[in-house]
Amino acid sequence: MSSKPVIFNQTSYGKAEVGVLYVHRHDKYRHSITDFQVTVSLTLATFIDYTHGDNSDIVATDTTKNTIYFLAHQHPEALESPERFGILICTHFLTKYQHILNCNVYVETNGWKRAVVHGKEHAHAFIGDSSIKRFTTVSKPRGQPFRISSGFKNLKLLKTTQSGFEGFMKDELTSLTDTKDRIFATSATINYEFNSIDSVNFNDIWEQVLRTVVESFSGPYDTGVYSSSVQHTMYLTNKRVLEEHKIIEQVEMNMPNIHYFLYDLTKIGVKGNTTTLFPAPLPYGHISCKLGRSVLAKL
């Protein structure tokens, strides 16, 4: 019985999590900073490094690392957004090395905000803001358009009412009961893909999508909005993102349902507890939804 020939389905290599801190010196004391973590993956036209141990086509990962720092130093204007920096890196590698077939760049931002001293923002002192992580993936196959998807993760959201869960399927293994009022807590991740990069202000889109997610989750400031399930809230949020931003082709959202339960105080003589809860970190509900324009048109 003859064996089938071995073929390569996919190969890539590169440098991961290259930290770049760039100081924008506006004057002697007034500075701003950009802090990126960059991962670059390259796909070559040949496989001789794998099949023959021939490294002659490899652009060393050390070269890749140095290139990231060089481009940041030479083109600080590209640091205005992770998307623009990713586009610059892809363009560089595909232009300089003709045997690279695909360049994929992942950029994640490390957030900082200005320190406040005596009620004033400091000129060059910053405090780490590690909650929300903005990210982007820029991919450029040779001869094809850029593919860019962006988003954020670790967006912690919680509301103390206007959330319930009832009418779900029940059988002999169901222990959960219906509720019209519960805590809704999550750490959301959202990823949206652009259908074009022409004249896009990536920073504005990011801020607007973030605002949309927070507003959809929260509802009006005084009364909120009722959520009948995590699924329904996610659908309404994704639908609104697509309706408000024609430049976005599809949007995906993940919202783990982080549970908080009323603590049983009756064992220490306290009855009627409705305010003191405890978090249950594991397990949690895992819910996701991806919505695209072809799907939206049918709804």
TrEMBL record:
Keyword Oxidoreductase on entry: yes
Predominant cellular place of this UniProt entry's protein: other
Gene3D superfamilies in the record: Urate Oxidase
Pathway annotation: Purine metabolism; urate degradation; (S)-allantoin from urate: step 1/3
Keyword Repeat: no
Keywords: Oxidoreductase, Peroxisome, Purine metabolism
GO BP, sorted A to Z: purine nucleobase catabolic process; urate catabolic process
Compartment(s) of residence: Peroxisome
EC identifiers of the protein: 1.7.3.3
Pfam family, one: Uricase
Sites where the protein binds O2: T61, N257
Catalyzed reactions per annotation: urate + O2 + H2O = 5-hydroxyisourate + H2O2
GO molecular function, one term: urate oxidase activity
Residues holding 5-hydroxyisourate: T61, D62, F165, R182, V230, Q231, N257
Binding site for urate: T61, D62, F165, R182, V230, Q231, N257
Annotated catalytic residues: K15 (charge relay system), T61 (charge relay system), H259 (charge relay system)
Enzyme class: oxidoreductase
One GO cellular component, as annotated: peroxisome
The family this protein is said to belong to: Belongs to the uricase family.
Functional description taken from the UniProt entry: Catalyzes the oxidation of uric acid to 5-hydroxyisourate, which is further processed to form (S)-allantoin.
Protein name: Uricase
